[in-house]
Design goal:
Layout: E1 13-15, H1 29-46, H2 51-57, E2 59-70, E3 79-90, E4 93-101, E5 107-119, E6 124-125, H3 130-144
Antiparallel strand pairs: 1-3, 2-5, 3-4, 4-5, 5-6
Length: 167
């Protein structure tokens, strides 16, 4: 089994397919986000917060915000790896950062995703169950010692401050 406490979590790998290539001959900008979102899905599934969790509990994670910075082009057939780090978490939110690398370990892009834990039947944000929150806290602690990549923007903006009434 993959351990989400691995720092960074590097289970997601993919090869750039032809349908990800744009008219400039490199990976289309939206596909960097696609790769990073797929990496997040693998990570969330390993946390026990994926599709099986939704089916079992009726709760799921919604993407509330996402941001990306591009650093280098990827081309057809390039092998990509994502390093996923849990940056912040509380009972209702996760902030996940994915760094996308090529086989030479060159940084291609960094994406951040803010996820909200939503009870779909009630249509509202709710706290995760204790067992999921315990694992999330363990992963957050493990990832906290990691030299995490710089945020996608100087103040990321994906995690509202305590003074923000919506946070």
């Amino acid at each position: 089994m993959n351990d989400p406490r691995q720092t960074p979590f590097t289970v997601y790998r993919t090869t750039v397919p032809a349908d990800w290539i744009d008219y400039n001959g490199h990976m289309n900008d939206v596909c960097y986000m696609t790769a990073c979102a797929q990496a997040s899905e693998v990570f969330l599934d390993t946390l026990g917060l994926g599709a099986a969790y939704r089916e079992r509990t009726g709760s799921t994670l919604y993407t509330a915000a996402a941001t990306i910075r591009y650093h280098k082009e990827a081309r057809l057939g390039d092998q990509l790896t994502a390093g996923t780090v849990l940056v912040r978490a509380d009972p209702k939110r996760l902030l996940v950062r994915n760094t996308l690398w090529d086989t030479a370990a060159a940084e291609l892009a960094i994406a951040e995703f803010l996820y909200l834990h939503v009870n779909q039947a009630k249509g509202r944000v709710e706290a995760m169950p204790d067992d999921r929150q315990t694992l999330v806290n363990q992963v957050l602690y493990a990832h906290g010692g990691h030299d995490t990549p710089r945020p996608t923007s100087p103040e990321s903006g994906l995690w509202p401050s305590r003074s923000d009434p919506s946070g």
